[in-house]
Design a protein that fits this description.
CATH superfamily: Ribonuclease H-like superfamily/Ribonuclease H
Structural class: alpha/beta
CATH class: Alpha Beta
Number of strands: 5
Low-confidence stretches: none
Largest sheet: 5 strands, mixed
Amino acid sequence: MGQQDLPEIIMYTDGAARGNPGPGGYGVVLMSGPHRKELSQGYLLTTNNRMELMAAIAGLEALKVIPSQVTIYTDSKYVVDSVEKGWVFNWVKIHFKGKKNSDLWKRFLEAYKRHRVRFIWVKGHANIPENERCDQLAVFASFQSQLPDDSGYQPDK
């Protein structure tokens, strides 16, 4: 299957934490042609960066056609720069020594390598409708009752 034959997916992602660390959540909007799907989940104790990354993971893992051509719009410089500037691929070479969120980065890379992914950074809270929707989903998810633990979160000692 040539790259031009791959399904095109537009994905918007956002993460939120109330306190850093604190309760948090992520929101994802997936769009492909006439199809649209929204995803969100909250966690009891997490960080904003973990939720930003978790949003990208959840969106990529939800894709049913592998590979797909995926454009991810996010307001997270942490996620965009880590991938687009190649930092995460260098972290793999050093086995993530001294890097935060290695559990999620490893999970991200498993999902990432199944697709053709590019990231586009967008300014947060700039009236971009799908980005604003992701923010709403993430914040709402963080307020849900009986939130699960973010099992990989490691508080700083």
